[in-house]
Amino acid sequence: MIVERYGAFAGYDEVVFYNLDESLYTIITSLRADNVRLICSGFDEGILSTGQISHGNSVAIANRARGALRLKTYPGLQKYYCYYPVLYRSDRKGCEVVQIPSWSQTREKLTGILRDAFETGPGLRQQKYIYFCSSSDIDGFPFGETELVMKLADHVGRDNLLVKMHPRDGRRVFQDYGISVMGNSSTPWEAIQICGEVTGKILLTATSGSFLTSTAMLDDGTRGVFLLPHHEKVPPRIWEQEERIREVVRKLKSEGECENITISEGFDLEVLD
Predict the structure, then answer these.
(1) pTM for this one?
(2) Of 28, 31, 36, 25, the residue nearest 10 (C-alpha)
(3) 72 Cβ partners below 8 Å, 6+ apart?
(4) Whole-number Å distance between alpha carbons of 22 and 76
(5) Were both Cys, which of 38, 87, 164, 193 would link to 182 (CB 3.0–4.6 Å)?
(6) pLDDT single digits (tens) 191-229
(7) Is the alpha carbon torsion for 266, 269, 271, 272 positive or negative?
(8) Between 232 and 72, residue with greater pLDDT
């Protein structure tokens, strides 16, 4: 987006980001020194993502110092690009909410690009059920997910379950139990689903948002099930994620989306029968 030229930072009139940290803050304030009209915009990484747009005390102190010197500071979020504005209008007050076009409108073009960029096919096998692991166990917020996957494998049959590990989780706990693990787990799930390789599959997770965005955007009839933990030993962070999932699914269903998404409480697997 180039509309005019300003000093050393010629040509920049908008900065679009997901996370705002101190290094990006420094870049923004430098750009605003040459272009006071610079727009700061956030974007939606996924339906369950909220974006880390807050900043700490050091940034607040720097802002006050720059203000006292009458230097240009971070102006706050002015635009927010997202897939479903209904999810953000209440908590993005003071900024313009801009809808990103649905993937279904550009699916054919996206498929070609994604197949060139990622390995989207070889990891999927004959299993009917695909489970998406979160990073909770390796991040120190365990809620019984490993035990859930074991229970799920016994319920649907180990030969009928494929696990997509979190990209940062290199454990072999499931292979050692005889459960198949997707070989290309580092490939974004959205790329796999956009390329149309999930026909007849049932997508499962406890708290991961991997399949929610693509299932909602593509409206391809793929069934997805959230098996929420919902028990007394769940860490506060997971409780918050559960509430976020319920809120997002409720709002999407009120808009006529995600009718094929089901929420099951307390690891209840009867919903699969």
Answers:
(1) 0.78
(2) 31
(3) 29, 32, 33, 36, 66
(4) 14
(5) 164
(6) 888 887 788 899 999 998 888 888 888 877 889 999 998
(7) positive
(8) 232
Query: Per-residue pLDDT for 96 more than 50?
Result: yes
Q: Helices 236-254 and 210-218: crossing angle, nearest 10°?
A: 0
**Cα separations (Å) of 60 from 26, 55, 71, 79?**
12, 8, 14, 21
Distance CA 89, CA 80 (A): 10
**pLDDT (tens digit, 9 = 90+) per residue, 144-198?**
999 999 999 999 999 999 999 988 888 899 999 999 998 877 788 888 888 877 8
d(CA 79, CA 19): 14
Share of the chain above pLDDT 70, in %: 82
> In the structure encoding, which two tokens stand for residue 15, read together?
């900065």
Nearest to 87 by CA among 49, 60, 120: 49
d(Cα 189, Cα 132) in Å, to the nearest integer?
9
Element (H, E) at 91: none
- In angstroms, the Cα distances linking 193 to 92, 185, 203, 209 are 29, 13, 11, 13
> Residue 226: its pLDDT value, please?
95
